[in-house]
Design a protein that fits this description.
13% strand, single chain, 8-stranded parallel beta barrel, alpha/beta, binds 6-O-phosphono-beta-D-glucopyranose, two-stranded parallel sheet, 468 residues, 15 helices
Length: 468
């Protein structure tokens, strides 16, 4: 029997699964104005193109309709045997523009119903407060997180959640993958690339505001209930040097330091020496007051949540251009590793190395809240045979267990994703991550019926047999 203390979970996010984009008083989310594939990227970059248009298909509008299917889905997840479910609350479902004085009661009651279901089945909720889900209004009107007023709006939203759901949610994450602001500034922070072209300055000022928002969230959460466990989250993945040439080794060290800089502020409460050096080297000047430094210092997070999909590879030689496609992180091709259909490199051992490094650095409990593989699964002859996913998950879980054996304190593990959903980067529905298959294609055609994949049964057994 699995030890109750370890949280075996599965995850989704509101913006990729709920649909119901204009139901229940919800305002627009950032994704609601993003169509599929190439158009999607253009719409993220260009404020002029960033709107709903009748000639295009917008996958988030229905998505997998978790908004209406949640009861059935959570019942099925109970069968899976998980004791933790990660989901996110859609900020514009609670505050449609971000600026209202009072929250939208219909939005709050939707999440109450989700919590009712989870409580009924004894499943621990793990809630992301902001999973790529800043209200669209704030992006358009305030330039998203570049503006300090977004921090105020976020703090008000957090306070509402902590008050309203007090005692019902123990584990929170302030922002999904905070470092994504550097790689997908629109989803991470409501910044339009064309407006802030190459503006590393804008990205870091927005990052500072995300950090401040996270610290205010901790402050509010602890004021309301000191048992609230507040996590920060990073998109993790060790960077290797391309060779053992000392220049490559140092380059890899630098890349790994860069990956820590935002999380460092959330855990240690201050900008690290390396962060300050990085800002100086890149000519970035962040506006930060003494009061803000104090807020960051006094409100640090309790645990480090992370996603892990792949390791990365770098070289000190600027002529090395052998990049692998598909991943939002720029990385060289590592010929020791195989790749997913979308070019993401598969490295289970990198999971263990990433975890021991994170734990050595932070000495705080870790929580793997996303790990999984996008595949072109098919429902055929009454089943979905996703052996590739089973192999991926099996190897990564083994690596996680080895990291725990090496002394890493890990709260739990959640598969991305519980159910097929819309891909964050490409908007595809056929890039499937779920343990549950959903009958819907890239254009939104299908019955939305759910089918258990082979990996569903495999994970159920894995949890039952786990020694953790
Ligand atoms: C993580 C995000 O970066 O990667 C998820 O937190 C996302 O929202 C996942 O879905 C996989 O990425 P993608 O782009 O394939 O959906």
């Amino acid at each position: 029997m699995a030890n109750k203390k370890f949280l075996w979970g599965a995850a989704i996010s509101a913006n990729q699964s709920e649909g119901g984009y204009n139901e229940g008083g919800k305002g627009l989310s950032l994704v609601d104005v993003l169509s599929l594939s190439n158009n999607r990227v253009e719409r993220m970059k260009n404020v002029e193109k960033n709107h709903i248009d009748a000639n295009d298909f917008f996958p988030s509008h229905t998505s997998i309709d978790f908004y209406h299917y949640f009861k059935e889905d959570i019942r099925t997840l109970k069968e899976l045997g998980i004791n933790c479910f990660r989901f996110s609350i859609s900020w514009p479902r609670i505050y449609p523009t971000g600026l209202e004085d009072k929250p939208n009661q219909e939005g709050l009651s939707f999440y109450e119903k989700i919590l009712d279901e989870l409580e009924k089945y004894g499943i621990e909720p793990l809630v992301t407060i902001n999973h790529f889900d800043t209200p669209y209004f704030l992006a358009k009107e305030y330039n998203g997180w570049l503006d300090k007023r977004t921090v105020e709006a976020y703090t008000k939203y957090c306070k509402t959640l902590f008050q309203h759901f007090d005692g019902r949610i123990n584990y929170w994450i302030t922002h999904n993958e905070i470092n994504m602001i550097q790689h997908m500034p629109y989803l991470g922070g409501g910044l339009y690339e064309k407006k802030y072209q190459d503006s590393i300055q804008a990205r870091f000022q927005a990052a500072h505001h995300l950090l401040l928002g996270s610290a205010y969230a901790v402050q509010e959460a602890k004021k309301i209930n000191e048992n609230n466990q507040i996590g920060c989250m990073t998109a993790a993945g060790i960077t290797y040097g391309n060779t053992c040439h000392p220049k490559d080794v140092f380059k890899a060290w630098e890349k790994n330091q860069e990956s820590y800089i935002l999380t460092d502020v959330q855990i240690f409460g201050e900008y690290s020496g390396y962060f300050n050096h990085y800002l100086k080297r890149n000519g970035i000047k962040i506006e930060i007051s003494d009061h803000e430094r104090e807020v960051l210092k006094s409100n640090t997070c309790d645990y480090v949540a992370f996603s892990y999909y792949s390791s990365r590879l770098t070289s000190a030689d600027p002529k090395m251009q052998n990049k692998t496609s598909g991943n939002v992180f720029s990385t060289l091709r590592n010929h020791y590793l195989s790749r997913t259909d979308w070019g993401w490199q598969i490295d289970p051992i990198g999971m263990k190395t990433t975890m021991v490094n994170l734990y050595d650095h932070y000495k705080k409990p870790l929580f793997c809240v996303e790990n999984g593989i996008g595949c072109r699964d098919e429902y055929k002859n009454g089943e979905v045979d996703d052996q590739k996913r089973i192999t991926f998950l099996n190897d990564h879980i083994q690596s996680l267990e080895e990291a725990i054996d090496l002394g890493v304190d890990c709260i739990g593990y959640a598969i991305w994703s519980a159910i097929d959903l819309v891909s964050a980067s490409s908007g595809e529905l056929n890039k499937r991550y779920g343990l549950l298959y959903v009958d819907v294609d890239d254009q939104g055609n299908g019955s939305l019926k759910r089918y258990k994949k082979k990996s569903f049964y495999w994970y159920k057994k894995k949890i039952e047999k786990s020694h953790l």
